[in-house]
Amino acid sequence: MEDRLVEAMLTCWRTPDRERGWQRLRSAWPEISRDALAGDYDARGGDGRSSDVPLKLASQTREEVAEMEEAFGWLNAIDPADRKLVGLAIAQLAAGKREVSWVKLLGRMGLDRGADGLRMRYGRALHAICVSQSGRNPSRSPSRA
Q: I want to staple 36 with a disulfide (CB 3.0 to 4.6 A). Which of 5, 48, 111, 132 is the partner?
């Protein structure tokens, strides 16, 4: 369960921010139209022939995006405050940490003490997700991987 959430976070981080990209590209100047036959570059940056420039691979596949959306959908089974905790912990793991630093999460959660309590709350939240996805059947795994 935790591994699928980490994979979902990594996929989410690879997703381009279309709004930011659009704001970076747009300007107050009117749009121009390029004419490949007049020697202008084509949309991919070549000199009129698309074969000049190799295609860029997508940053993720449809299957990865579907798995990300499914894993993030699991978080609907827990309280919103616990969603924040799970998100912060999963973000640390996705960033390459071997284990979650619960002490560092205290401030982000608005607490002064109780790092062990956060760890236990995280465990209960993951357990609640597992129970909701398995339908209380311990032999049914919520993870397809």
A: 48
Separation CA 101–CA 54 (nearest Å): 43
How is residue 123 written in tokens? 């465990």
pLDDT tens sequence across 58-72: 677 889 999 999 999
| AA identity, residue 81 | A
Other beta carbons less than 10 A from residue 75's beta carbon:
19
Side chain identity, residue 143:
S
Across 56-71, b (16+ Cβ under 10 Å) vs e yields eeeebeeebbebbeeb
Between helix 2-14 and helix 62-73 the angle, nearest 10°, is 130
Q: Residue 104 is encoded by which pair of tokens?
A: 């560092």
User: Which of 92, 94, 95 has its CA nearest to residue 105?
Assistant: 92
